Amino acid sequence: MEQIFTLGVVNNKEMLTLLETQIRYLLPPKSKISTEHSDIRVTSENDLPQALIDNIQGLIDETKKSYRKVNLMQSKASTEHSIFTQDPMPVLLESNQLVQMMPGIYTYSGALLELMQKLDEFFRQYALREGASERLYPNILPVNSMIENGYVSGFPHHALFVSMAHQDSDTLKSLSALKDIESLNDLVSTNGIMLAPTVCHHCFEELKGAKLEDNMIITSTGKCHRFEGPSAEDLSRTHIFNMREIVLFGKSSWVHKNRLKIKSDCEALFERWQLDYQVETATDPFFPAGSQNKRNFQAMNQTKFEVKLYLPFKQQSISAVSINNHMETLTESYGIKGGKNLISSCVGFGLERLSFSILSQYGFDRGNWPDTLKEDLVLE
Is there a domain that residue 130 lies in? Predict the structure, then answer.
């Protein structure tokens, strides 16, 4: 079943892309969305409920009112190194290197797991050489903190909350006799916990209310949890993914210097590994249509850089490294002190996306991989 939404705005690719990203989170499973000229086309197994159609149209109308074009800077895209053109997913699934537990959630094994582990260890060692201290964090965060720091208001579409059974004997008896998921909602409640959407927020929880005497670098790897709706189709977008992060705390001049150094080191590394990539200033996909001011602020202040790796089979690029400047927003939210001009920054290396991009560009025969890549990752 196809539903067409007409924007009446021609040649505004950025607005169409923004709306396509946002509408995906409203759609039922197995839905498809595409854009053409000034139309957004939604295809689903069944007719969309009228309430959902009205919801989507309301989002479109609100976005058209508040939208302002954001000027993003892009480096020249490289596409000359790739020698592979096939989608790696069929081989990964057929060889059981990937086993899908449910859409967007996988188990990893074999050569794929080894590649992810080697990448994580490479960036771990890089962080330690830069002076980072290492942490191991849990997979959950307090909801109150994520409301206060603005994450829930900016990214409500990503939030995954943890539930627990109502603590009374009747509920527990009913839960023990549960036969299907349909009646579960009546038996559980939120308990102030959500699955962590990032690694870096744990650093702020750890340092909440602290006074820092010196600049600080923390590194950790962990699982990130973000609901991605029907977009979770392959390793370029999953509901649960693994990320190595480097988090900087310190005087603004020191943080800016080191953030740009990491960006430069990433560019040099991907050149050395002969990966096709592009660097661009970026904005986050804030969900409420009224979040235009946040997007403008990010673009004007270049608070977010993304290093995007090319996927030849899609002829598209995906963000594999995200380099963010929080400025004072999170240190102030968490009451972290440290003299004048204390700010924070984080750099996230997406292990699934890095691995998927390497396989997409060079295939599964490591004999065809660049020697520098194999040497740095200690791969045979």
Answer: yes
- The HSE-up count of residue 302 (CA atoms within 13 Å, CB side) is 10
pTM: 0.85
The sign one gets for the Cα dihedral 370, 374, 379, 380 is positive
pLDDT (tens digit, 9 = 90+) per residue, 343-365? 999 999 999 999 999 999 999 99
Together in a domain, 276 and 220: yes
| 282 within a domain of the structure (yes/no) | yes
Element of type H or E holding 106: strand 105-108
286's CB contacts (< 8 A; 6+ apart) are 154, 155, 294, 295
| pLDDT at residue 6 in the model | 67
Structural domains in the chain (count): 3
DSSP 85: -
CA–CA separation, 308 vs 321, rounded Å? 7
Query: Which CATH number goes with the domain that contains 145?
Result: 3.30.930.10
H, E, C per residue of 269-287 = HHHHCCCCEEEEECCCCCC
Query: Quick one: tokens of 188?
Result: 């559980």
137 and 119 part of one domain: yes
Contact yes or no for 280/305 (Cβ under 8 A)? yes
Q: Does residue 109 sit in the same domain as residue 32?
A: no
